[in-house]
Amino acid sequence: MIDPTPNRYTLLADIGGTNTRVALAEGDRLLPETISRYANAGRPALEPILTDYMESTGVRDLAGACVAVAGPVAVDGQTASMTNLDWTIGTGPIARATKAEQVFILNDLQAQGYALGALPEGATRQIVTGQAAPHGASQLVIGIGTGFNAAPVHEAPGGRLVAASECGHASLPILDETDIALMRFVEGAHGFPGVEDVLSGRGLERVHAFVTREAGRPTQCGAAEIMGQMEAGTPDAIRTGALFVRMMGMVVGDLALIHLPFGGIYLCGGVARALTPYLERFGFETALCSKGRFSDFMRAFPVAVIEDDYAALTGCAAFLSARLRAQ
Length: 327
What we know:
By secondary structure, the protein is α/β, with parallel strands linked by helices. It has 2 domains: 10-115 and 310-326, Nucleotidyltransferase, domain 5 (2-Layer Sandwich); 124-307, Hexokinase, domain 1 (3-Layer(aba) Sandwich). The chain has 11 helices and 14 strands. It has helices at residues 47-57, 91-98, 108-115, 177-186, 201-214, 223-232, 235-259, 270-275, 284-289, 295-298, 311-326, and strands spanning 10-15, 19-26, 29-30, 36-39, 64-69, 79-81, 88-90, 103-107, 124-128, 139-144, 148-156, 159-162, 265-268, 303-306. Strands 1, 2, 3, 4, 5 and 8 form a 6-stranded mixed β-sheet that branches. β6 (79-81) and β7 (88-90) form a beta hairpin. The chain is globular, with a radius of gyration of 20 Å.
């Protein structure tokens, strides 16, 4: 039952390329019973979704709002552009739609970073043990879903700092002739072979198209169909999964060397979760650690998968609560 007391709640939203999740929080506590999911297709902007949500819950007067966006946030923090959706998100329109007194916009991976330590028990699955790290060691969240991105998580004297990035548009790593051929195949998507062109839902489809073309039987399949074929043991799907996971391990290893997240690496996103049962079989840890003379060093980093689909909402709640308390 929603309490009409003014400023009791804050509003949270996780805006992906396909769906938007909206919920309320009380302090830093996400209220699971208030979560609603909306399809983005056919919506001209975020605001109609927020208006629908406000009407459905009956909440009127909010202490604040925080939205997590799958795209880059402007330097001033007031606007954001969706990478895989033709929406521009702004604090002003959000404030008008929600009547929230304070509005913040985060990159979606930043929200995942703020969720670390606040997730419910059982929300993560360990896949690489790594080594014990001192309290306050840096962490890293990596999202593989509709797109690809990562955010380092640092514990600072003034509180947690989660830095934004757009590393999904960095260059693919290349080690052998197969990687070169894959690079040439995927660069036609945007004129540049970026990480996201392989490590994403659409990237999985491109890898499968590449594998079947190389085998002389070019085939176009959707990501869900490929995953079904992988589960059934179809050879082309198995080769697709193996190549995808090897590339995934290489990229995660590169990011680990850049950020040194001794406190742990956390994978999130629908594609990461779907591939979790195959990571050991397809050699994820081997690819992660294959860094020449630094191979032993790489074994220090623990890796886990965030299996909570609402982690970004939890992160928004934690971030917003801390900001409101500080004011």
